Amino acid sequence: MLKKGKLKLPDRLGILVPGFEEKEEENGGSEPVFESGEELEIMEPNGVELGHKENEYEFDDLGVNDTVGDKVDAFRTRKRPDKNRSGQVSVMDVIAAEEKRSDLEHEFSQKEINLEKVKRIANKGVPDGGGLRATAWKLLLCYLSPSRDVWEKELTENRQKYAKLKEELLLSPSAYTRVRADAMISAELSREGDVAGPLKRQGISHGDHPLSVGQASAWDHYFKHTEIAEQIDRDLQRTHSDMKFFSGESSFSKKNREAMRNILLLFAKLNPAICYVQGMNEVLAPILYVFSTDTDEQNALNAEADSFSCFVRLLSDSVDHFCQQLDNSPVGILSTLSRLAKLLKENDEELWKHLEFTTQVKPQFYAFRWITLLLSQEFNFPSILRIWDSLLSNPFGVQVPIIQINFL
Amino acid sequence: MATVSPLAKYKLVFLGDQSVGKTSIITRFMYDKFDTTYQATIGIDFLSKTMYLEDRTIRLQLWDTAGQERFRSLIPSYIRDSSVAVIVYDVSNRQSFLNTSKWIEEVRTERGGDVIVVLVGNKTDLVDKRQVSIEEGDGKAREFGVMFIETSAKAGFNIKPLFRKIAAALPGMETLSSTKQEDMVDVNLKPTVNSSQTEQQGGGCAC
Fold it and tell me: What does this protein's UniProt record list under function (chain B) (predicted)?
């Protein structure tokens, strides 16, 4: 989508996403002229500060120049950029945010939601607070259908499905057997009215006990998954460990980590060829955060189930990058990296030559993480949410803008 | 003096299981700080640092790798180019110690004897959780014929000695290493190592 030969350096992230140039005109009248990069929302005009309750972040502005600096810094020290810079709030920003908010609220209240319109608005950043982002992301990931009427039914079904999956795949074999037995017993009790005779013993097949080493043993599978769970836990300990939402000993953060663990474990179980790959935790974190901080109580309560489905949908676009067997295939990470190198050569041959020949820094050394993690380790948290608004509203999927954003 | 010679450059690759402290060791060496908010390393990261030794200056290029199996397909190329492989385990995680054999063998397969290998037992500050004794670590290092040291990136313990040890063993440093051998603070084998987790005050090295 990039114009060959000459890269137009965008002054706002939203412009990076192709296909939405017309938005400029449409909103041109009300759109104030910002300093470069002052696109992000920085305050909640309605005073709704849901996202901030458990979070020490100030939602500051994301200056493009600043982020480049941050990126370099983050790269050097592998730490998150400083998020304590206080952003300057201009009246124009507030008005623009307010307009976007009412536009989105209006759109979400329609019986049939115009997804294209949601994409156009979200591409420029969804205002924080009020659960707008949660709804927008669910729509953009096609987890919610554009017909509002079916939302409740679909959500209920999906959440029940998730609960069932969890029960079948995440409980230890004995716990699962117990749950099933309890269900059977209570069914029998209700049939017979009272307990007559001894309790029935569960039939355990010959090879199916914890000491069985057979490959088919349910316990063998279970232990493999304990190993994966340990890997996941080690990474969850260091997922946004500067945020109260994810880190610390509070029951709140424990619950959130538990949810992430369940989701990642379930994904690993359902996708044995990929399993759990380090970094998936980073991709999941923004989704769970956004859904858990939805102002709608039911949505917030069901954030885990919704996050699972949306995480799977988001990864479907880039899951091949996580798969080692596909590394050398046309859909694998190495091929994406060489596409990036090719784009770089077309747009900035000098830089490309410098990296390729002078310093011999291959794209897998600097862009592997950017691409596999959808930039989620490169910026501070509020900025990640803002960038994802644009990524998710891209009509060609999240990968296309990722490669282009890397030119920043 | 002041003979202008090009800065000798060496590549060091850090290998080892997930969450053993590879990034923390590098960060302690680079910036002399420790932070609990490091994220997992995804793919590969690299940093470089100039080390000012008594009679020469060298440039170290540090390659930090991800611990997980999945990322290894990206690793061989830079094991191949490295002068030094630093293989890290967590003294409070036995499995990570057992897995160092795999890492050492991988490096040997790739480079034969043409590489300096250092086995590093990190996290000695976790005294109560230790699962691998210093003798075991030393024994394994002898068995494989590699160097050995225990460190704590968190406490800042033995990090500078680790890099001084490496620097002294680098090719072209033979004279330096033989004359400096007795000056080296060979803290790694002292039995008191567990009880002295205090911050190491840098020795004679100006790094």
Answer: Protein transport. Regulator of membrane traffic from the Golgi apparatus towards the endoplasmic reticulum (ER).
Contacts of A319 in chain B (CB under 8 A): none
* Type of residue at A54: E
Each residue's pLDDT expressed in tens, for chain B with a length of 207 residues: 555 567 888 999 999 999 999 999 999 999 999 987 788 999 888 899 999 988 789 999 999 999 887 887 776 677 888 899 999 999 999 999 999 999 999 899 888 888 999 999 999 999 999 999 999 999 999 999 999 999 999 999 999 999 999 999 987 755 444 444 434 444 444 444 444 444 444 444 444
Two tokens, residue B71? 């990322």
Closest residue in chain A to residue B44, using alpha carbons only: A365
Of A88, A110, A97, nearest to A35 by C-alpha is: A88
Nearest CA in chain A to B95: A227
Residues 40-79 in A contacting B (C-alpha not used; CB under 8 Å) = 75-79
* Measured distance CA(B169)–CA(B166) in Å, rounded: 5
Residue appearing with tokens 């930090």: B64
Q: Domain residue spans in chain A?
A: 87-150, 159-190+216-321
HEC states along chain B? CCCCCCCEEEEEEEEECCCCCHHHHHHHHHHCCCCCCCCCCCCEEEEEEEEECCCCEEEEEEEEECCCHHHHHHCHHHHHCCCEEEEEEECCCHHHHHCHHHHHHHHHHHHCCCCEEEEEEECCCCHHHCCCCHHHHHHHHHHHCCEEEECECCCCECHHHHHHHHHHHCCCCHHHHHHHHHHCCCHHHCHHHHCCCCCCCCCCCCC
- Is A238 in Cβ contact with B19 (below 8 Å)? yes
- CATH number attached to the domain at A87-150: 1.10.10
Q: Residues with Cβ < 8 Å from B72, sequence gap 6 or more?
A: none
The CATH number of A159-190+216-321 is 1.10.8
Nearest to B39 by CA among A331, A17, A282: A282
3-state SS, A313-338, equals: HHHHCCHHHHCHHHCCCCCCHHHHHH
Contact B40 A368 (CB under 8 A): no
User: Phi, psi at residue A133, to the nearest 5°?
Assistant: -65, -40
